[in-house]
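Teaching assistant here, posting this on the class forum so everyone can see the example we discussed in section. The complex has two components, and the goal was to see what a joint structure prediction looks like when all of them are supplied at once.
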Amino acid sequence: MMATTIYVPCDTTARSLGADAVAARLTRAAERLGVDIQLKRNGSRGLFWLEPLVEVETATGRVAYGPVAPTDVDALVDAGLFEGRQEHDLALGDIEAHPYLARQQRLTFSRIGLTDPLSLEDYTARQGFAGLKQALALTPQGIVDEVKTSGLRGRGGAAFPTGIKWQTVHDTPAAQKYIVCNADEGDSGTFADRLVMECDPFMLIEGMTIAGLAVGATQGYIYLRSEYPLAQAMLDEAIVRAEAAGYLGDNILDSGHAFHLEVRLGAGAYICGEETSLLESLEGKRGLVRAKPPLPAIEGLFGQPTVVNNVLSLAAVPLFSTRAARPTPTTAWASPAAPWRCSWPATSPVAGWSSWPSAPPCAS
Amino acid sequence: MSHPTPQPADTALAAQLQAVIDQHAARPGAMLPLLHAIQAQHGYIPDAAVPMIAEALRHTRAEVHGIISFYHHFRTHPPGRHVIQVCRAEACQAVGARALEAHVKSALGVDYHETTADREFTLEPVYCLGNCACGPSLRVDDEIHGRMDAAGFDRLTAQLSATVVEVK
């Protein structure tokens, strides 16, 4: 008989509520009962009031239980958790049928909560690196054009058209250009970037690599706040694995193109979320704001042309960088001029980019 | 400025620091990675590191000091065995962080940036751990704890303290 797959989320919030202890107790209970389980640490689906949200793979799909405290585990197991039975009060059934999730269409968050964040196999099984492969078939200008056509706007909040920013960097000649990811997500109440980095780090790596191909940058930095230790660990490991598999390095997927990526840690300065002070900090200085112009796209990191984009913007790139990879438009963004392709307030109850029956608040 | 003659204990520290500096100095924008590496090794940035970093990265001592003091993350004094950070950002304050903070200070008998007399805990404020849906949040070393209250904090510190009192 095949091992039963049990999912226990591994993001900061689930762990802050005891997910590691839940996982350990599930393993012990399986050993005690002689049940063959495969414990998988997935990302969080973002229903934090139900974390730790345990899911069990059954013949008819996943069955969820939550919120599961470590002390609930034995009772849940006694009530048939390993078989996916749903008599226990914490049983939730198919979590995707939950009204909170059922009305969402997740795009950048499509894998989050479903996959092991560090599994390249899980990532590629769900369209991972499809955007990169398609981008490799285009010219740099072709990629920039696709991003322009997609209408992607900076999702850090300012909604500047991503393709136009990239065009400036593309058009500025330099021996060395840079892609910088602003992962200094400092405002209280915002944690969408954290979820992306902890739960689907390969998506950010892929987006930054495509950005590098588009503008001719061979070095990327993720400027991450030091308050996110788990995101740092996840990104560092994901970069190592992506390099080993040929998705990063001197010769990406045998294309002859190079792109290197490194996580750089901030140090508790809120101002460094502003792009020019972030660049100062990356250069090893005090994080003081620079005067603009010159724009970072022309004179950015170490005085070189630099794309500075937010985590969510770069994470959306694999979806939007090529027409073939772009998802089918649904009600909310069927219009080519869909004005709400802007940054979602991360405090919105909807984590990620979703379809709404009517225009969301930032449409006005 | 003349350098004081290094003492034997200082020589060992200087050797350790120099090894870290040599490891990072050639990286582009080496300053922050270097300071992080020193703090990871020693728990803080020793004064002795300042002239050594200045020399390696071709800065003045004043510039190095200015960078260290700009970033809240860097400490210039040795911390206790565990660093406890209490989130003081808005989302946590909205769900009781102030009461938690008052309890933590009185339970440990220290204010922010202070270390308990037994050198067990250093208390620091932090502004958002990204755990806003499940505050109040605390960070102990690299672990985040959510929905923290006074009783939970007492349990946590008891566990942390218990791990050193093993008598064999």
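For the discussion questions: The longest helix of chain B spans residues 8-24. Strands of chain B lie at 82-87, 114-115, 121-126, 138-140, 143-145. Think about how each of these relates to the inputs above.
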